[in-house]
Amino acid sequence: MSQKSAFILLLLGLLVASPGHAQRQPSAPAISKPSPAKPKKLSRKERKELARRAEIEVVQSQGRQLSEKDREISESFFVDGIRYLLLEDYNKALERLLKAYALNPANAAINYKIAETNMLSGNLQDATNFAQAAVKLDSKNAYYHLLLAQIYGSQKQYDQAAQVYTTLIRDVPDSGYYLFNLADLYITQGKLNEALSTFNQAEKQFGPLDEISFKRQQIYLKQNNLDKALQEGEKLVQANPDEVRYVLAQAQMYAANNRFPDAIRVAEQALKAEPENPQARMILADIYRQQNNPTESQKQIKLAFESPALDVDNKVRILVDYIKQLPNPALTQPALELAAITTRVHPKEAKAFAIAGDIQTVTDHKAEARSNYMKAIRLDNSRFQIWQQVVLIDAELNQTDSLLRHTDQALELFPNQAPLWFYNGVAHILRKDAKKGVKSLEYGRKLATDNPELQAQFDTQLGDAYHELKDYAKSDAAYDAALVFDANNAQALNNYSYYLSLRGEKLEKAKEMSGKLVKQNPDNDTYLDTYGWVLYKMKDYAGARQQLEKALKTSRDATVVEHYGDVLYQLGEKEKAQAEWERAQKLGGASPLIDRKIKDKKLYE
Questions:
Q1: Using the 8-state DSSP alphabet, how is residue 330 labeled?
Q2: Taking a C-beta distance cutoff of 8 angstroms, is the pair 588, 558 a contact?
Q3: What is 310-329 written as a DSSP string?
Q4: H/E element holding 541?
Q5: Could you tell me the sign of the dihedral formed by the alpha carbons of 71, 77, 80, 82, in that order?
Q6: How many Å apart are CA 473 and CA 88, to the nearest integer?
Q7: Is 500:494 a contact under the CB 8 Å cutoff?
Q8: What is the mean pLDDT of each run of 10 residues along the chain (605 residues)?
Q9: I need a labelling partner for 10 at 20 to 30 A (CA). Which of 25, 135, 159, 561 fits?
Q10: Assign residue 122 a region: left if phi > 0, alpha if psi is -120 to 50, beta otherwise?
Q11: From residue 59, how far is each of 63, 135, 534 by CA, in Å?
C-alpha cells in the first residue's frame, strides 16, 4: 500500500472499508449536521447527469473484483466527498461520492453518505434509495437506520419511519433507547395507544423514568383520562418529592379539574420544599378565589408578588387582568396594593411603573399615575404611549406648565406624533402665547392628514388661537372646517358663536349655532350663557334674560353674572343690574369694564 493511501486510511479511521475486506463497514459514522444556512440544492438536470455517469461506471465495474488501485481511488473520492459535504457544497460532494460509489457500490458507508447528501440538498427520493441500500448492506449499524427513519419522517411517511425504528430496536444490539423515538413518532401520528405500549416496553427495559411518566401523563390528558393522568402525576411527585415543578404541575392539574382539597394539599407540599415559591402561591390564590374566599386569595397573591422569582412580565399580565375588571370597588384597593408591590420589588423595570400608572389612572389617582409614568420614562423613554398618558393627565389636571414642559420633552423624541403637537399648541394658547400655539397646531395638523377626527380637533383649537390673534378670517375658516367634519362639535359651536357675538358679526349664524347647542344640552350653563349673549347682541333682551337666568341656576361664573347685569340694565332694572355687577366683581374674573360700570352705575361695552 502506498504511503498516501495509508495516510488516508489513518485520517478516516473506520469510515471506509480497509483493504482486503470490501464490505466491512464503519460502526458509527457521524451524520453531518445541517447548518442554519439554506442547503445548496442540485438542479434536476445536475442530479440526472451525475446519476447517469454513476450508473455507467457501476455497470463497467460489475463482473470484476475491486483492485487495490480502484479501492484507493474510491477512498480518495470518498474523503473529498465528505470534505465538500462539511463545506455544504452539495454539488461537489455528490459528484465525488457517486464516483466512489461507481467503483465500490457495495460499500455501506458510501451509500450512507450519498443518502445524507441527497437529504440535505432536498432530493428525498434518492436519499431514500441510498439509505435503504446502506441499511441492507449493514443492518447492524444504528446510524443507517436512524438516517432512513429521518428521511421518511421528512416526507411525513410516518408508518415507514416507525417500521425502521422497530427493525432497529429488534435487530441492532443496545438500541432500546430508540423506543423513545418510536413512541414520540406514534404521538406525532396520533397513535396514542401504540405510544403508551412503547413507553411501557421502555419502562420494562430501563425501569421507572420521569420522562416516561411525564409523557404518559400527557397522553392520558389527550385521551381525557384524568384519573390515569393524575395517577402518573402522583408517581412523579412521590418519586421526586423535592422536584417542585412536578409538584406544581400536579397541583395545577387538580385545581383545573376542581379537585380543590387535593390541589391545596399538593401546593402546600411545594411550599414546604420552597416556602417562597410564587407559582404555588398563585395556584392557592386561584383556588381560594374560586371558593369565594377573597381575603385568603388576596393574601396569597400578595405573597407571590413579593417574590422576585415571579418575574415582572407575569405580574404585569396579572395586573392587566385587574385593569379589565376595573372600575370595581372590591378590586380597586387590591389592585393598587399589587401595583405598589410590583414597583417596590422591581425598581429598575419601566414596565412595573407603567402598569402601576395604568391602574392608578383607571382608579382616578391621576397625580400618582403621572408620577409613576415619569419614573417609567426615566427608566425607558422610548415608549410613546407612556408619554401620551403623561400629557393627557397634564391636560386633565389643567397643569399648563407641566403640559408644555412634557410635550416639549416628548417632541424631541417623537417629532412626528401629531397628538403631541396638538397638546403643545394648547399649552401655548393657555399660557397666552397664541402665536406659538398656532405654529405648533399648524405643524401638527399637517401630520394628521390620515386622521380626519384629529384634524377637526386641530381646526377647533386653531379657531380659538386665530381669534386671540385677531385674525378673524382664519379663525372663522378653521371653525367652519371643524364643523364640516362634525356639525355637532360642541367646542366649535360654542366658541364660534360667542366670538361672532363679541364682534357683532354674522349674528344669525351665531344664534343658529348656539341655539342648536342649547337644544342638545339644555342644562349646560356655559352654552346657555353663550346663547343668552348672542340674543343680547341681537337686542333680544327678554330672551337673553331667560337664558342667563337658567345658566345662573348652576353657575357662579363672574362673566355670566356680569352678562346678566348688562341684560337687566338694558331692560331698565338698573338697581338690580348694579347688584349683579357688584356680585361679579366679588367673584373675580369679570371684564376690565366692571369697575367703571359699578362706579358710574352705567353700562359700558
A1: H
A2: yes
A3: S-HHHHHHHHHHHHHH-S-H
A4: helix 541-551
A5: negative
A6: 74
A7: no
A8: 30 30 33 36 55 49 68 93 94 94 94 95 94 94 94 93 93 90 89 89 83 83 83 82 84 88 91 91 94 94 96 96 93 96 97 98 96 98 97 96 97 97 97 97 96 96 97 97 96 97 96 96 96 96 96 95 96 95 94 94 92
A9: 135
A10: left
A11: 8, 22, 109
Contact status, residue 42 vs residue 123, Cβ threshold 8 Å: yes
Residue 172: left (phi > 0), alpha (psi -120 to 50), or beta? beta
Angle CA 288–290–294, to nearest 5: 50
The set of cell numbers assigned to 537 is 347682541
User: Could you tell me the maximum CA-CA distance found in the chain, to the nearest angstrom?
Assistant: 136
Grid cell of 552 as nine digits: 345662573
**Secondary structure class of 293 (helix, strand, coil):** coil
Q: Rounded CA gap, 414 and 30, in Å?
A: 55
End-to-end CA distance of the chain: 123
What grid cell was written down for 238? 412521590
The DSSP line for 477-521 is: HHHHHHHHH-TT-HHHHHHHHHHHHHHT-SHHHHHHHHHHHHHH-
CA dist 257 and 539 (Å) reads 78
Per-residue confidence (pLDDT) for residue 460, from 0 to 100: 97
d(CA 292, CA 275): 24
pTM over 0.90: no
Give the integer Cα–Cα distance in Å for 582 and 597.
Answer: 9
Rg (CA), the chain: 42
Buried b (16+ CB within 10 A) or exposed e, 386-420: bbbbbbbbbbeeebbebbbebbebbbeebeebbbb
| Residues sharing a CB contact under 8 Å with residue 131, sequence separation 6 or more, in sequence order | 111, 112, 115, 119, 144, 147, 148, 151
* Cell 458507508 belongs to residue: 109
Instruction: Provide the H-helix boundaries in 346-471.
Output: 350-362, 366-379, 384-396, 400-413, 418-430, 434-447, 452-468
Q: Which three cell numbers stand for residue 222?
A: 389527550
- C-beta separation of 104 from 74 below 8 A: yes
Q: Closest Cα to residue 518, out of 560, 563, 562, 488?
A: 488
Segment (H or E) for 549: helix 541-551
How many CA atoms lie less than 13 Å away from 567 in the CB half-sphere? 25
> What type of residue is 378?
R
